[in-house]
Design brief:
The protein is built from one helix and seven strands; from the N terminus they run αβββββββ. The chain is mainly β. It has a domain of about 80 residues: Immunoglobulin-like (Sandwich). Strand 6 and strand 7 form a beta hairpin.
Amino acid sequence: MKYYVGNSVFDDFFKGNDFTGALKTDILEKDGLYQLNMEVPGINKEDIQIELKNGYLTVRASKNKEDNGKLIRQERFTGTATRSFFVGHKVDGSEIKANFTDGELKIVIPMEQKEVVKQIEIQ
């Protein structure tokens, strides 16, 4: 099969600049913690932001376009990808830890503290 730039069945399949399926994540539960293992290949640590707001943990990863000449075809991602996870309103943001090594982002989140219901005795 010959490949013709700009005129191929692959044009519909590989649209370029589409980060669908990016930031693939495994979520583990262990020792009273949640651990998110997220693939972030080709992204620098400085280009990743993690935010906890209104019970949602949001991860944003950005990659700028390289200007190395005339681009004929683009299949690698450039732009920003975002993933959000609801972690609860009672999670203490100061207890969340993140580590980035070899294209993998690991985020450790303490489980939401359960509200204890206490009956108050009337005197």
